[in-house]
Amino acid sequence: MDAGLGHVVGVDRYKRPYFLSGLSFYSLGSASLKHVTTGPSGTWGCDSYNKVYKFVAGNWKVASGYTLQQVDAGGPGQVVGIQSSSNRTQCLSEARALAFYGTGSLTWSYLSNVLMYVSCGPETCWGVTNDYKVYVAKIRDNCGRATGWQYVSRGMKMIDVGTDGSVYALSTSGLVYQRTAFSSRSYYGTRWTNIPMCMPIKHLTYDLKNLWVVTESRLLLVCTP
Question: Which key words tag this protein in UniProt (predicted)?
Answer without folding.
Answer: Lectin
